[in-house]
Design brief:
With about 150 residues, the chain is an all-alpha fold. The protein has helices spanning about 5-25, 35-65, 70-95, 105-135. The chain has one domain (about 5-135).
Length: about 150
């Protein structure tokens, strides 16, 4: 596997994981188990951010085509910050069509802390895994993206 393939899989995981989380959260017993609780959290975060994340990540991966693995690494470091305005726009659209009981700015501040915290925790996890795979020699080479 190349580093670029690894980064592409890492970009797709926040959308793919909630699908598997659904199966774990609602189709396992006991329903209140630890794995079911974590799966519900993953599923709900995918439902909350997924509609904004898919076009954002597709656009980012499209912009990164033809670049090196280092470019993917740098982009992953700034991706949560780049995603924040997209997510705020998504929240504004939701607020326009179905105003919630909470003030809009309170929702933005609540979700931005969660978004940046979880986003950078995921980036840290991706880079730790990349470092581990690089250290054990699992990457074939440093190709340019196609």
């Amino acid at each position: 596997m190349t580093e670029i393939t690894f980064y592409r899989w890492a970009a797709a995981s926040p959308i793919v994981l909630p699908v598997f989380a659904y199966a774990i959260a609602w189709h396992t017993s006991p329903a209140g188990g630890v794995f079911a609780g974590i799966a519900r959290l993953v599923l709900l975060s995918g439902l909350a951010g997924g509609p904004a994340y898919v076009p954002f990540m597709c656009g980012l991966l499209w912009l990164l085509r033809g670049t090196t693995a280092a470019s993917y690494g740098y982009a992953s470091l700034v991706a949560p910050l780049l995603f924040a305005p997209v997510f705020i726009l998504y929240l504004a659209v939701l607020e326009y069509f179905g105003p919630g009981p909470e003030p809009f700015i309170d929702n933005v501040l609540f979700y931005l802390r969660y978004l940046l915290g979880v986003g950078y925790a995921y980036v840290l996890l991706v880079h730790l895994l990349r470092f581990g795979l690089l250290h054990v020699g699992r990457f074939s080479d440093r190709q340019t993206a196609v």
